[in-house]
Amino acid sequence: MPVAASAIYFLNLRGDVLINRLYRDDVGGNMVDAFRMHIMQTKELGTCPVRQIGGCSFLYMRISNVYIVIVVSSNANVSCAFKFVVEAVALFKSYFGGTFDEDAIRNNFVLIYELLDEIMDFGYPQNLSPEILKLYITQEGVRSPFSSKPSDKPVPNATLQVTGAVGWRREGLVYKKNEVFLDIVESVNLLMSSKGSVLRCDVTGKILMKCFLSGMPDLKLGLNDKIGLEKEAQLKSRPSKSGKTIELDDVTFHQCVNLTRFNSEKTVSFVPPDGEFELMKYRITEGVNLPFRVLPTIKELGRTRMEINVKVKSVFGAKMFALGVVVKVPVPKQTAKTSFQTTSGKAKYNASIDSLVWKIRKFPGQTEATMSAEVELISTMGEKKLANRPPIQMEFQVPMFTASGLRVRFLKVWEKSGYNTVEWVRYITRAGSYEIRC
Amino acid sequence: MAPTAPSPAKSASPSQPSGKSEVSDLKQQLRQLAGSRAPDADDQRRDVFKRVISCMTAGIDVSAAFGEMVLCSATSDVVLKKMCYLYVGVHARAHPDLALLTINFLQRDCRDQDPTIRGLALRSLCSLRVPNLVEYLVTPLTTGLKDPSAYVRMVAAVGAAKLYHISATTCLDADLPAALKALMLSDPDAQVVANCLHSLLEIWTLEAANSEAAGREIETLYSKPVVFYLLNKIKEFSEWAQCHVLELASKFLPSDNNEIFDIMNLLEDRLQHANGAVVLATIKVFLHLTMSMTDVHQQVYERIKAPLLTLVGAGSPEQSYSVLCHLHLLVMRAPMLFSSDYKSFYCQFSDPSYVKKLKLEMLTAIANESNTYEIVTELCEYAGNVDVPIARESIRAVGKIALQQYDVNAIVDRLLQFLEMDKDYVTAETLVLVKDLLRKYPQWSHDCIAVVGNISSQNIQEPKGKAALIWMLGEYSQDMYDAPYVLENLVDNWDEEQSPEVRLHLLTAVMKCFFKRPPETQKALGATLAAGLADTHQDVHDRALFYYRLLQYDPAVAERVVNPPKQAVSVFADTQSSEIKDRIFDEFNSLSVVYQKPSYMFTDKEHRGTFEYSEDLANLTVGAEAPETVISAQRYQENDNDLLLSTSDKEDNGIRSSNGSYTSTYNAPSDLLSSQTPAETALINPGSSTYSTQTNFSLDDLLGLGVPDAPAPPPPPALALNSKPVLDPATFQKKWGQLALSFSQECSLSPQGAASLMNPQSLIRHMQSNYIQCIASGGQPPNYKFYFYGQKAGAAAFYLVECIVNTASAKAQLKIKAEDGTTAEAFSTLFQSVLSQFGHS
C-alpha cells in the first residue's frame, strides 16, 4: 500500500487540534495525545520527521505555525506521504490566497474538511489538482434553494472533468487576448571555503508559466540546452550554431509534458493547464556563473575586539543590477557594541540572529561594495573562542540574469483556430543557500 | 466566517461545563432551525453546523446533538450536506440506532441526478461504519460501480474496500471483488481503475489469510496481463495512482529479459516526473527487475543517480530526508555509485539536523581513496559546528572513515588536531576514536600516545571519553611516562567518579599498569582494589573481588588474564546482517528504509512497542541465515572481544552476552514457548500455532508472496508434511547445531526451474506450496542459499534443509538434517521431487 493514511491531523504549536480527519479505523483515538506526549513535548521534536510510537508511524511536517501529521499503521510510502502533504498545502494556499497558517485554518476549517474529503478517500490520495477541484468545491458552494435540480452547469461538468484524459485542462476555454507568460526562476546555491575555493555550487531552476490561451493549444518550448540543440542539429542535418549551450544535469516536468517525445526528440511539447503552473524543474552543476563574489577578512584584536571587512563584487553584466542584496555576517553572542562603515547600503547589528546585517537595495553589475565593521565584545571568563564561525549568508535577486546561462530560444503555440499569441519571457536569479565560510 | 464560539484551542474534555452548556445551546438552536423555512435558514444552519464541527474538532463530545443534526440535514445545500455527513460519519458508530435515521436520506441522495451528490452520499454511506447497517450498503455500491459518472464509480470502488472492513462476508457475498476486477480491466477512467486496484489489493491481501482462492486472486493481480495493462495506461493515472501501479510492477516476476527491457523502456520517462514519489517508485521497479542481471543493474544505478541527486536538493527537508534514507541504502549496496558526487552531501548551514546527520552518514559511506581527503577536510569543518550533536557525529564520521583504511595517516593527524581544539565534547569523542583506531592500527600508538599523554583527565567530563583515556593509559602505560601517576590521581578521586563504566575501566587499567610497571603502581593497585571492593556498584565490586582473588591465587595467571598479547582488530562487527539488509531493500520506498528495519519488525502486533525484542529477533534471524557461520562468528567475536573491549571486559562481556540471550527469551513469551516445545504446541493446539505462523506469513506477504499458495500437488504418500509447521529462527539454529547430518547430496534443477529463479522468492513460494517453509535465504546470482524446514504431519519431528542453488549450472546441493532419522530418507526424496518440479508449474 503506498500510503493508506489512517488519519491526518493539523496541530498548532501548542499541540491543539485544528483539524482532524480519520480515514480508517485501524488507529486508536488518542493518536494526537501520543504525538503530543512523545514528540511535541520532548526534545525529539525536529530531530526526525518520521517517528514510531506504539504500532503507528507519525510522519510530520511543520509549515509556518502548523504541524501536519499523517498517521499510518502499515509500512507506508514515506516520500509519497510527504509529497501529499506538500501538495495539499499548495492546494489550501491556492484556496485561501497565499498564506497557510493557524489563522487561515481556523477561518476555513469547513472548507478544509471538504477538501480533505475529496483529496483522500480511505487513506488513498485522490485528485489534488486545484484547477479541477475548484470547479466543484467553491468557498460559496451554495446551490440556490430554488434550483435544487442540476440547473447550474459547471457542477455536473466538473465531475466529468475530475478524471478525464487531459485531467489538467478544461475544454472550451475562451480568451479575448491569448497570452503566455514564462518565468525562468533560478536559485543558485554556493558553499565557499574560507580560503575562497568553491566547495559546492549548483543551480536549481524552474520554469513557471502562466497561460491564458483559448481552446486546446499545443505548445513547444526550445531552450539552449546541449542535448536539445544537438538533437535538433542532427534532425535538420545542419551544424549546431555556436554560442553557449547548457548541460542540464537532470530535468523533471509537469505532468502535461509529453515525456515520450522529450525522450525521442528532446523537445518540450505540451498541452498546458489553464492559468499558473510549474512547467519544469532542472538542476545544473557545471558552468555556473556566480553573480557575486564575497571576500571577507575577519581579524580578532585581543579578546574583546574584532575587525570585520567584507567586500562584495558583482560579476554579472554592467547593464544589469541586483535587488534586495542582504549580507549576514555572524558575530559572537557576546557582542556589545558595533560600528560600521559602508560604501553603499546600510548595515546594522541584529542581536536576535547574532549577525551583522548589511542591506543594499540596488547593486549594479560589475561594481563592488565594502563594509568594514568594528565589533566590541564583552569579555567573558572561560568561554573559549568558537573554532568555527557560522558561514556568511547572502540573499539577492538578479532580474534578467540566469546563473546557468539558460535562455528560451522559442515558444511556439499551435491551436486549430490559429490565433495569434503574445509571449512574455522573464528571467530572475535568486540566492538559494549562498554561504561563504569565514 | 468569524472564528467560532469556543476557541478550539481549549481542548476541553466532554465533562467540562463549558462544553456541555455549549452543546445544549447548539442543540436548542438546531431544533429551532429544523423546521424553519425562512429564506436565510440555510445560512443560519451553516453557522450552527460550523460551530458543531468546530466543537467536535476541539474534542468536545457533541454526540448529544445527533438527532437534531439529522433533522436539519434535509437540505439541498451542498456545504450543509457535507458538514452533516462529516458529523454523522464521526458519531454514527456510537449511535447505531440514530444512524438508521440518516440511511434514508443518504439512500435518496445516492439516486440524485447530480453525480456530485450521488458520489458524496455514497462515500458518506460507506463511511458510517455501523455493522448492522451494512445491508443498506450493498445496493448503492453495486449500482455505484455501474454509474455513468466516473466520479461515482471512483467513490464506489473505494467504498467496496470500506464495506470489506466493516463486514467481510457481506462484501464477498455481494461479489463486489469480481465487479471491481471487471471494472479495473475495462473502465476508461484512470482514477476508477486506480481505486479498484487499491481496493482489490487490500481485500485480497487481508482475505489471503483465510482463503486460498484469495491467494490466487493476488497472483492474478501480479500477473503479466494485469501488470502490463496497467503499465500501458500509466500516463493516464494521477501521480499517486502511478506510485501504486509502479509498486505493483516492482513485485512482478518477468518471465524473460525482453519483458524486463520492455517495462524499463516504458517507464524510462517516469524518472523525469516532478513528483519524487513517482521517481522513487520507478527506481524501485528498475532495481528489482534487474536484480538478476548484474550489468544492467549497474547501468540502472548510473541512470538513477541524477534524478536522485535532484530529489535530495529539491522539496522540503522532510522530503530530502526520505530520499537520503534511500540513498544511504543504495550506497551501502553500491558504494562507488556516488563517490564522485560527494559534494552533493556537504551540509548546508540551514539544513535541519536530521538531514545533516544523514548527509554525514552518506559522506562516510562514499569515502574512498579518491575523495577521502576532501571529505575529511569537510567533516573537520563540522567538528566546530554550533550544533553539538552534529559536531559529534562528524567526529565519529572521521573515525569511521579512518577505520575504512583510506589515508589513515592524514586522518590520524586530523584527529589529533581535534584534541587541541580544547572543547569537552570534541575531546571526548576523539578519545573514543583514537582508542578504536589504536586497536586496529597499533603501529600508530607512538604518535597518538604523545598527544594523548598531554591531556589532563580532569578536563574530560564524559564517561565514554574518560573511559577511553583510561584504557589507553592502562594499555600503553609502558610508553607513557606518567601513566601510573595519572592513574593514581584518578584512584584518589574514586569516590567522585559517578560512572561505573569509568570505575571498571580504572580497575582494569591499574591492573595492566601494575603488570607493566609494578614498583610504581603497587600502591595505587592496593588503593584501587580497596576502593573497588567497597564500591556500591555490583559489577565494580565483583570485578575488584575477582582481581583480588586472582592476584592471590597466582599473579602470573592474573597477568595472562588481564594482559594477554593482543592482535589488531581487522574488522569491526557489522551491526546488521545482510539478510536484514536484503529485506529492507525488498521494501524499498517505504518506512522500512527510514527505520532501517524490515517491516515485520514494526508493523506486526507482536513486535510493536518492544523494540528490544525485535532487535533480538533480528539477531536471531542473522543466526538462522547461516548456522555454521554464526557459530564461527561467535567464536570470532569472542576473540574480538579480547581485543576490542580490553581483556578485563571479557568476563563482563561473557555475562552480558548470556544475559542477552536470556532477555531474548524472557521478553518474548511466544519465542520461549516455541523454542521449548515447538512440536508439542503445534501438535496440541494447531489453532494457536497460527499465532507465530502468521509472523512468517506476514513476512512473506510483504514480499508480495500472497500466502498461502495454490494447493500443493499431492505429495508422495511416503511422507505427509504438516501444512503449517512452526519453527522460529532461534530454534532452527539450535536444532541445526545439535543434529547430525542425515543426508548430503547434489541434485539437479530443471532448466526451467533454474531460469525462473531470477528471484529467490519464486522458489520459496514454490516450496511453501508444498509445505516446506523457508526460514532464511540470501545470496547473489548465480548462487543462492536457502534454509528450509518441514514437519512430519501429526508428529513433532522437524526436517531441516540447507540448499545451495547454482542457477548457472542448475545444480542444488542439499544438506538435510532430521530429528526423526527413520523418515529422513523419505523426506529427502520428497524434497528432491518437489525441487525438481520447480519451474514446471
Automatic annotation (TrEMBL), chain A:
BP-aspect Gene Ontology terms: endocytosis; intracellular protein transport
Name of the featured protein: MHD domain-containing protein
PROSITE patterns cross-referenced by the UniProt entry: CLAT_ADAPTOR_M_1 (PS00990), MHD (PS51072)
CDD domains reported in the protein's UniProt record: AP-2_Mu2_Cterm, AP2_Mu_N
Topology versus the membrane: Peripheral membrane protein
Family: Belongs to the adaptor complexes medium subunit family.
Record key words, sorted: Cell membrane, Coated pit, Endocytosis, Membrane, Protein transport, Transport
Gene3D superfamilies documented for this protein: 3.30.450.60, Mu homology domain, subdomain B (2.60.40.1170)
TrEMBL record, chain B:
Any one GO biological process: intracellular protein transport
Localization of this protein: Endomembrane system
Start and end residues of each Beta-adaptin appendage C-terminal subdomain domain: 719-836
Keywords, ordered alphabetically: Membrane, Protein transport, Transport
Example of a GO MF term: clathrin binding
Alphabetical list of InterPro entries matching this protein: AP_beta, AP_complex_bsu_1_2_4, ARM-like, ARM-type_fold, B-adaptin_app_sub_C, Clathrin/coatomer_adapt-like_N, TBP_dom_sf
Compositional bias ranges of the Polar residues kind: 655-674
Family to which this protein belongs: Belongs to the adaptor complexes large subunit family.
Subunit text: Adaptor protein complexes are heterotetramers composed of two large adaptins (beta-type subunit and alpha-type or delta-type or epsilon-type or gamma-type subunit), a medium adaptin (mu-type subunit) and a small adaptin (sigma-type subunit).
Known function: Subunit of clathrin-associated adaptor protein complex that plays a role in protein sorting in the late-Golgi/trans-Golgi network (TGN) and/or endosomes. The AP complexes mediate both the recruitment of clathrin to membranes and the recognition of sorting signals within the cytosolic tails of transmembrane cargo molecules.
Protein name: Beta-adaptin-like protein
Gene name of this polypeptide: LOC125544053
